[in-house]
Amino acid sequence: MIQPLVYGLGVFAILELLYAALRRWPVRVRMLYHVWALVGGVVAALAVTVGPEAPAWKTAASIGALLTAFVLYSLLDSLVFQRPWQPALGPIMPKLARDVLRIVVLAAVAIVVATVILRQPLPAVLVSSTVVSAVVGLALQDVLKNVFTGVAIELERPFERGDWLLLDGKTVQVVDTSWRSVRLRTRDGLDLWEPNSVFATSRVVNYGSGARPVGINFEVHVTYDSPPARVKAALLAVARSVPGAERDPAPEAFVTAFGDSGVDYRLRVWTRQLAQLNRFTDAVNSRIWYELRRQGLDVPFPTRIVRWHDAAREEQRAEETHLEQATALLAHVHLFEGLAPDVVARLAAAATYQRFDDGELLVREGEHGDSLYVVEQGSVAVTKRGAEHDTRITLATLGRGGFFGEMSLLTGEPRSATVTADGGCEVMVVAGSALAPLVHADPRLAELFTRSVMARQAQTAATLEGRRERALEQVEARAEATLLQRIRSFFGVTS
Ligand code: CMP
Known about the structure:
Elements: H1 2-22, H2 31-49, H3 55-81, H4 95-117, H5 122-139, H6 141-156, E1 164-167, E2 170-177, E3 181-186, E4 191-195, H7 196-201, E5 204-208, E6 214-222, H8 228-241, E7 252-258, E8 263-271, H9 277-294, H10 311-331, H11 341-350, E9 352-356, E10 361-363, E11 371-385, E12 392-398, E13 403-404, H12 406-411, E14 418-431, H13 432-441, H14 444-465, H15 468-477, H16 480-490
Adenosine-3',5'-cyclic-monophosphate binds near residues 396, 405, 406, 408 and 460.
């Protein structure tokens, strides 16, 4: 009875003495070590009482062997892997690698225990361990996913402890990593454990720990009347004055787009104040507001004017305005002065309007023409090719109420001159087809046109030749009656 007690207590005492010696080093096992020493004592005591073949001893020895592996691994971890001689450098291996090693060591010891102590055949142990692994693997799919992502994180190192991450729109700081999850701390000081698998599927932005500066962008909208150079100068002044903004890299300001209600700018400021980022962005944004105000630069806010309108009425009103405008213009045309009001009204109804930029050609000399123009706004220059190459002779400048294009329209001859917009202009256009019924309705129109054409031809000849007298004689020689006849026949009017 004494002998097993001596053996048991002896083993226990030796192991405890060893522990006392080890305590000078930073060992991390305590409770577990004492349990192990106790089991060691029990195994020794059972060995001398029931013998190594007894099931009780086998059970105790198996537990003891597993505990031995556990304790030895823990001592190895404390005294070697943790690098106690140079604690500042941190562990030799990452935590995840150490955890995996521990599991492998324990699994190997378990197989040894099953075959050597419990005397189970090795193939049966391996098969059963494989089956168990498969079952466990299926059951622990999510856990394994986390473990594998954890391994990838350890190898790839996309972030370190202390780094600030943007994860699913939230800014968080990495506190710790493990084989299952990453411990993160929010700006509110709350800790959250994100499973490693989250990092395999989410897009993570790493701002770093603040050791290197990062660029923070501020989007600003300023009204269109603010010159970009002034806006950019104001934004850069803000960036230079805010505490926590880096000078190198220097801040930058860009025009990024022309928006609906103003010009879009981007100010990029570099900072290391990641822990205080909200305060930093607040300071920059607030100072932008004050600086823009001081500089008299306005930040627009979207405005929208909603007008209800009756399409049919608007169309009718536009038609009426158009007619009024055309009638008023025709009243300015001396050629139409004696015409019956209904003929003028029909002419006005047939007219359309066109706008031309400065220098644009309305009529080109020598081309076929089939419309009459009346100047509504601005003026046009009537020019003709000179005898010498590349010279142009100005025949007339026509302002509001001046008409042109009637010559070739009435006679069927090519355009006698070129008409060019002299500054921007707006003209009324009457198509030849719209003019014909009016000549039928009021035959005097043909006579009025004939006189006008003759007068212009005379003036052109006078300008070209500089001899008004002779020109007039020449024109008169071309019988007025012949021209009138031509015009009448062009419109199909029989006198
Ligand atoms: P048309 O010949 O159809 O095309 C050129 C137009 O210039 C012409 O009709 C007249 O309307 C106009 N035109 C030609 N000669 C003169 C002139 N001497 N004075 C004013 N306008 C003219």
